[in-house]
Amino acid sequence: MTATVKALWALVLPAIIIDGLKFGIFTPTEAGVVAAFYALFVGLVVYRELKLKNLFHVLVASGKMTSIVMFLAAAAMVSSWLITVANIPGELTAMLGPLMENKLLLLMAINLVVFLVGTAMDLTSTVLILTPVLMPIITAARLTF
């Protein structure tokens, strides 16, 4: 019971984000800002695990991680554009035509491709590169979600 009480401040954060978005109190971008300031407040004041002297180093590390993710996203978008310009989605749709009759087999083939690519690449890059490739196939097969 004491562990739950200690973790209550941290457990409130997802509720703040979800309820704020659900009730239209703030936009997704504003939700990120609210979450960041709430986490900063909880770390500095409530749990006292984050010290003011370490705050600069934490912010620098966060900036470095953000720049890495943005660089990966930019590289993935360039790759995605090249794949689209080369008409690879159209060629794959024509090649996978026989599989479109059996939707389960098509989904298994797509899962295999995503699995193989995902073993070698980051999740963000995989999604950004494969979405423009796979969406025409999914649309042509009339798969619904």
TrEMBL record:
Presence of keyword Membrane: yes
Annotated keywords: Cell inner membrane, Cell membrane, Membrane, Transmembrane, Transmembrane helix
Protein name: DctM-like transporter
UniProt-annotated location(s): Cell inner membrane
Lineage: Bacteria, Bacillati, Bacillota, Bacilli, Bacillales
Topology relative to the membrane: Multi-pass membrane protein
GO CC aspect terms: plasma membrane
GO MF annotations, alphabetized: transmembrane transporter activity
